């Protein structure tokens, strides 16, 4: 069984603030250790379920948060950037299931460290007219490849968002949002035990899915009209209004194009994400 694990950081056990998840933050070094422990719990569960090949993609920020020496030896790590597929780099139709560890709710939701990909630079996103963030777009991209999402971990709002997309996905809430930078935390050992158990049982119940080649429409509303204007220079990108662009295409190609949009936006801005 080949397993793909995408590891974000905002939804990791115990983390609630930008200083926990951004390099240079006063608690970042602790945060990256906490991230490794949640990921390792998921890897242990995958091994218990019979996984023979586990790929972990460091999907947060600089994508150099997980220290290779801290990772369970059963997994291979994809580390660093740029990556053509960003948070989903390395995911292929050859994987039997995907795990989303440390994920967070989309922009506008009152979840811990909620945002969509680029902090406040992205105000809203829609996939085929449906509000979407990192969770929904990851799920849709995996589905397009025929790879089922088996388990998602994060705060309770992230879990609710995943359930709205696909109620068959097993979710593990490691904290309960009180606001965007405050949460009630599950004890670390309890949370990691729940992750390990959920992955072991969730993978055992995962069924193969048919790939979905149908095209989709992705629309993104940016904070800056300048970003939207520049993106219209990319073939196939059109404007909905002065700050919203859209494109139509089949996933995962559409996801890869969105990663290019983010690189363009990042080159035009230097604002910190959690304002």
From TrEMBL:
Pfam families: Peptidase_M55. Transmembrane segments: none annotated. Gene3D superfamilies: Dipeptide transport protein. Coiled coil: none annotated. This is M55 family metallopeptidase.
């Amino acid at each position: 069984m080949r397993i793909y694990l995408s590891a974000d950081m905002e939804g990791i056990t115990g983390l609630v603030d930008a200083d926990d998840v951004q390099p240079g933050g006063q608690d970042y070094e602790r945060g990256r250790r906490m991230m490794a422990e949640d990921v390792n719990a998921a890897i242990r569960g995958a091994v218990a379920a019979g996984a023979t090949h586990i790929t972990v993609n460091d999907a947060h920020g600089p994508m150099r948060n997980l220290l290779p020496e801290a990772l369970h030896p059963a997994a291979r790590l994809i580390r660093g950037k740029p990556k053509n597929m960003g948070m989903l780099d390395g995911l292929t139709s050859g994987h039997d299931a995907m795990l989303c560890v440390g994920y967070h709710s989309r922009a506008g939701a009152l979840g811990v460290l909620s945002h969509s990909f680029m902090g406040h630079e992205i105000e809203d996103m829609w996939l085929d007219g449906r509000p979407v963030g990192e969770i929904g777009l990851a799920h849709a991209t995996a589905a397009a490849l025929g790879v089922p999402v088996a388990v998602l971990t994060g705060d309770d709002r992230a879990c609710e968002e995943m359930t709205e997309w696909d109620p068959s996905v097993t979710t593990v809430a490691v904290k309960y949002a009180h606001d965007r930078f405050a949460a009630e935390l599950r004890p670390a050992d309890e949370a990691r035990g729940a992750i390990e158990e959920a992955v072991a049982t969730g993978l055992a119940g995962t069924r193969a899915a048919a790939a979905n080649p149908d095209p989709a429409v992705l629309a993104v509303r940016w904070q800056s009209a300048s970003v939207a204007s520049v993106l219209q220079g990319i073939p196939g990108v059109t404007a909905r209004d002065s700050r919203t662009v859209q494109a139509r295409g089949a996933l995962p190609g559409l996801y890869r194009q969105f990663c290019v949009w983010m690189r363009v936006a990042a080159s035009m801005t230097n604002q910190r994400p959690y304002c």
